[in-house]
């Protein structure tokens, strides 16, 4: 099934972007290319509470999937 992401509403596009960022940061953590402080810094930059919560949930999801403690 093909989905055109450009047709999504702005808030959904942002959720997709936050999910991608979370996946990348957890991958970097797993590969020892960064520390947990970078994730904390990213969380601190997110102003909207709902977006912050979403990002934290995505980080937890990818940590679980990638086996990162």
TrEMBL record:
Pfam families linked to this entry: DUF3283
Alphabetized Gene3D superfamilies for the sequence: DNA polymerase III-theta
Organism: Vibrio panuliri
Lineage, highest ranks first: Bacteria, Pseudomonadati, Pseudomonadota, Gammaproteobacteria, Vibrionales
Gene Ontology molecular-function annotations: DNA binding; DNA-directed DNA polymerase activity
Name by which UniProt lists this protein: Pyridoxamine 5-phosphate oxidase
InterPro entries (alphabetical): DUF3283, PolIII_theta_sf
GO biological process: one example: DNA replication
